[in-house]
Amino acid sequence: MRVIAALTVLCVMTWGFTSARVYGFEKESEAVFEAADNQREILSILSNTDLDHIEPLINAYQRQHPGTTVLYTVASSLELFRAIHDEAADYDVVISSAMDLQMKLVNDGFAQQHRSAVVDNLPVWSKWGNSLFAFTQEPAVLLVSRKGLGELSIPENRNELIALLRDNPEKFKGRVGTYDIRTSGAGYLFATQDSRQSDAFWRLAEVIGSTSPRLYCCSSDMIEALKSGEIVFAYNVVGSYASAVLEKSDDGTIAPLTDYQIFMLRTAFIPRTSAKASLAGTFIDFLADAANRELIGEKVGLPPVDGHALQKHQHFRPISLGPGLLVFLDRIKRERFISEWADAILQP
Amino acid sequence: MWWFSNNSLGRRLLLQLLLVAAVLSALLYLAVRSVANQAAIAAHDNILGASATAIAEQLSAGEDGVLVDIPYSAFSMLGSISEDRVFYRLYSDNQTITGYEQLPLPRAMHTATPFYYNAEFRDAAVRAVALTRAITVADAPVQVTVVVAQTRTGHDVITSKVTNTAAGLGVAFFIVAGFLSWLATRSTVKPLHVVAGAIGRRGAHDLRALKSPIPSELKPLVDALNGFIARLREALHRNETFLAEAAHHVRTPLATVRTQAEIALRQAETPASRKTLRSVIRAVDESSRSATQLLDHAMITYRADQFAGEQFDLSALLYEVIQGLSATADLKDIELITDIAEGLICAGDRVLIECALHNLIDNAIKYSADEGEVEIKLESTGEVIVFCVCDRGRGIQASAAGALTERFIRGANVADVVGSGLGLTIVEHVASVHNGSFTLTARRGGGACASLQL
Amino acid sequence: MRFLLVEDNTDLAQSVSARLKLDGHAVDWAADLHSANGCLAGASYDLILLDIALPDGDGRDFLSKHRAMKRDTPVIVMTARNAVSDRVDVLDRGADDYVTKPFDFSELEARCRAVLRRRGGSARNVVSYGGLEFDALAARIEVAGEVRELRNRELRLLEILLSNPRAIYSKAQLCDRLFSYSEDPSENAIEVYVGRLRKKLEGCHARIETVRGVGYRITDQ
């Protein structure tokens, strides 16, 4: 009996790995977290979250579900969107911080609904249509290099930042970093939400543009550049990444902007193509379970969903899940926004 | 129809009222559901229309054609009513400017006012709105149609809620109406019950006319009833008088005959004439006794039909009966041995029970030998009161014990004693009227025991 | 004893009077309530025998009035109706007892005795004969200061014999008066009672003599 069972498992594993289709989208990395016990099921996750961050989370999940092997694929948020939207890639859970793209996937019918006691207990703003569930709330922050700033004081809001850059054009020339929203999904999301929050955004864009800013694809590059002293300001860095890295350095710091602070929700859903909805459901429940928030906060280093913090600080603005997010994904709207942004940032 | 075959007026009325209530409930349910449904659709349509209008207002002419700057609020307002998926499409000159290319267009195009329609898109039912605006591009007017659609999950939720509410309302209405119907029926039928109750509560001899207030519809019935009661009263009265008269007219001459015979017997000289006179006296006694028991039997049958229970002291009654019969017992030097529990209260017809006791003791005395003993016992064992009369008389034949309670049947061994054969029938009847039982058993060593359980 | 008989039927009244007189009683007859009241005003009676249906009123009303006037002469009602309710009714109105027509005179006499006994009868009923004191009401005799109880039949036998001392009564005559007509006792049964009574009479001069071939009589010799 045992031999047969082992053989069966082997076959399933072999089939599971070999039958994977070859997709056109670009994967950054892939990892297999073997089941602790005899493997019974394989859960495949497609995510834009780094392996480093997600590993403790998956380990904790496997402690609760020792028979589950987790196949974890990392891709950029745009590639991830393409994989699901265009290629109908066969994954059981899709995790992304690009809320607008996630929202569009769900809105366009690429998700299946999931109901459980755990997700029913989630605050209303952190889920949408019983399909999309948030498990972290991560701020877009302004990173500042104290060394680079010299005697100047750290700006407390965007108007102070505008004034600082405008008053010291030479000092900050080529030393401001921000997302290239043409290539970064997160950058585009932050920029569009910024534009909704305040008129100061376009003035800030103009001023940043006048400093001949450096444009980055991702938060980690910006943080590295700041640490190496290349840039003094990094605008709209994902705060959770920054704080983890900056702990080891005494130079970089997060400027506590008090006018408003955008929070991005990292969300997960079960793709319509997943044949293992109930297994995927256990993972969604694991992410959404209030009991696991401490784990997410401490071990994973991503701020968990926390309604109290959002209520306490009036300037914390979580991006709300809903069809509004689709607006900036409109082709014409997007072209217009990017062209306006480019006009402001890419000054000759 | 089946309910009209029912004979109860009240049930008939109630059924008809309930039928009306059911129809009204169903109408209420349909009306509420349809009104609420339309209201929900209208509210939803208004927002869809506002969304489409907001988009249409941002249409502008660009260098390459039509431009649109979809306002954030256009979609977020749709998100505020329900978590339904949103689709949109901008369409002009047979091509899609932006949005979902397969989103179905309305049948009628080019309407400036919002046009609402239902459609299917991406495996989901959607409610859609379309409106058309003219934009001037390169000096030429271009018709741009804005379509906004939303899945109907939220609407379905509202509809099911409304349906539940409407159903609840319908059921509640039906329950309230049913209850009121019941009340109305009851109060309508109540006078009938009042009349019936007034008649039913009456004692056996209450033959007064009905006087309780009644609705005019019932007056003919009650008048007829009162007429009937009057006639019945008259008849019963005549009957009673007749019986009393008859008894008087039969018994008085009988008494004369018997007395004369006794006197003659005193003076009789020859055994033959003695014998004749004795048989005259015996014949008189026999007819008298038969008359008594026939009347008793008639009385018992009548009273049993009009059975009216009352509480009375059975022990005291038994003492009275024994006293009345002690002279009879004395004549034969028969000793009445009594063992009577004091103060036993019995519920039943006093007259009937007295009659039964009288008959049983009288029988025991009659069938006892001279100087014999008759034991009379009255005791209570829990719920049951047991009255027992035992004699040392000639007893009964076991085979005949059951038959003795039949009318006019007498034991084969008592031909020499005056009797009509009705005595035990009367006792049996009284017992059954009181849900009791009567048993007659042969006694060891001769004699019989009659026992009456009440 | 002195009876007042209230009865409207002449035949019955006459035969009852005759029958009672046979036993040595005095009887006044009233045919209606009016004359009954007259009789009661003029004489005193040991017992009233009262019929119910009378030409000038209901015997029961007379009974009620009789009791209301505190007259204590015992009343035995003779009724033609036998319904239990009627019996209860007359007893409630103050009758001492009732008999249903037609009645057995032995029974009537026994009832009269019982009624008078209950009323605490008078001494004039005591008959003395040959050293024998006979109290019929109390059903006992006294012989040389010794009281002896009599059973009913012994009592009646003694009563018959004493009603006409020295007269001879045949067995048949005695039988007729001691036993119910519904029974057919042998004449020998009389011998049993005679024997018993003789025993009870021992010690006094009164004794029952057998007149061979004829019957019995009581003598005090």
Question: What is the topology?
Answer:
The complex is a heterotrimer of chains A (348), B (454) and C (221).
Chain A: H1 2-18, E1 29-33, E2 41-47, H2 51-64, E3 68-74, H3 77-85, E4 93-96, H4 99-107, E5 111-112, H5 117-120, E6 127-128, E7 132-145, H6 146-149, H7 158-167, E8 176-179, H8 185-197, H9 200-210, E9 214-216, H10 219-227, E10 233-238, H11 239-246, E11 252-255, E12 261-271, H12 277-288, H13 293-300, H14 307-312, E13 316-318, H15 331-345
Parallel strand pairs in A: 2-3, 2-4, 8-9, 8-10, 12-13
Antiparallel strand pairs in A: 1-3, 4-12, 5-12, 6-7, 7-10, 7-11, 7-12
Helix pairs in contact in A: 2-13, 7-9, 9-15, 10-11
Chain B: H1 9-57, E1 59-61, E2 66-68, H2 72-81, E3 86-92, E4 95-99, E5 115-121, E6 124-137, E7 140-151, H3 153-200, H4 219-267, H5 271-305, E8 310-313, H6 314-331, E9 335-340, E10 345-348, H7 350-367, E11 373-381, E12 384-391, H8 423-433, E13 437-442, E14 448-453
Parallel strand pairs in B: 9-11
Antiparallel strand pairs in B: 1-2, 3-4, 3-7, 5-6, 6-7, 8-10, 11-12, 12-14, 13-14
Helix pairs in contact in B: 1-2, 1-3, 4-5, 5-8, 6-7, 7-8
Chain C: E1 2-6, H1 10-22, E2 26-30, H2 33-42, E3 47-51, E4 53-54, E5 57-58, H3 59-68, E6 75-79, H4 84-92, E7 97-100, H5 105-118, E8 126-129, E9 132-135, E10 140-143, E11 146-149, H6 152-163, H7 171-178, H8 188-201, E12 207-211, E13 215-219
Helix pairs in contact in C: 6-8, 7-8
Précis, in short:
The complex is a heterotrimer of chains A (348), B (454) and C (221). Chain A is built from 15 helices and 13 strands. Chain A has helices at 2-18, 51-64, 77-85, 99-107, 117-120, 146-149, 158-167, 185-197, 200-210, 219-227, 239-246, 277-288, 293-300, 307-312, 331-345, and strands at residues 29-33, 41-47, 68-74, 93-96, 111-112, 127-128, 132-145, 176-179, 214-216, 233-238, 252-255, 261-271, 316-318.
